[in-house]
Amino acid sequence: MEDKLQQNKLLEQMAKDYAPYFKVDKTAEKAQLDCELETMLIRLEEYGSLLERTRSESRHTLDVLVPQIYSHYQSLQRTFQTIDQLEVLVGRVKEDLTKMEKAVSKAESQLGSTQGFTTVMKPFFFVSKDSLLMLLKN
């Protein structure tokens, strides 16, 4: 029995020695937790504000800017058609010029011309303005 009493005293002493290790300062941890929660709430509010601003800007874009862009695009349709037609015309002129050069070269070789017609015509279409001016001066 005395052995049991001594064990109980030893257990009580050991519990008293270890008790401070299990004490938690709840106020410091609560303050830190409150600070973290406050920071998280601020970030969530900022995110919500950003979403709302994006939503309103998107609405502005859809309601105002997109119709303006579409209207401007519609007004440029004639210009786009003209550009397309010019591209076709330039392609046709280039094709015709190539055919003409071949025909002139063939005619020159058959007639034995000393100065080629293509060497006179070619600079008008494929040379810079400076070279063209030099050619016209001569």
Write the layout of secondary structure elements.
Elements: H1 2-22, H2 26-75, H3 77-111, H4 117-126, H5 129-137
Protein name: Biogenesis of lysosome-related organelles complex 1 subunit 4
Keywords: Coiled coil
Coiled coil: 83-110
What's this, in brief?
With 138 residues, the protein is mainly α.
Give a description of the structure:
There is one protein chain. The protein is 91% helix and 0% strand. The model has no long low-confidence stretch (mean pLDDT 81). The chain has helices at residues 2-22, 26-75, 77-111, 117-126, 129-137. It has 138 residues and is mainly alpha-helical. It folds into two domains: 11-75; 84-138, no CATH class. InterPro entries: Cappuccino. Residues 83-110 form a coiled coil. This is Biogenesis of lysosome-related organelles complex 1 subunit 4. Keywords: Coiled coil.
Rg (CA only):
46 Å
User: What's the average pLDDT?
Assistant: 81
Q: How many helices?
A: 5
Shape: elongated
Q: How much β-strand is present in the residues? A: under 5%
Number of strands: 0
> Could you name the ranges where pLDDT drops below 50 across 5 or more consecutive residues?
none
Number of domains: 2
Helix content: over 70%
Sheet with the most strands, sense and barrel status: none
Q: N-to-C terminal Cα separation, in Å?
A: 136 Å
Which series of helices and strands comes N to C?
HHHHH
Structural category: mainly alpha
Features:
single chain, 138 residues, mainly alpha, 2 domains, 5 helices, elongated
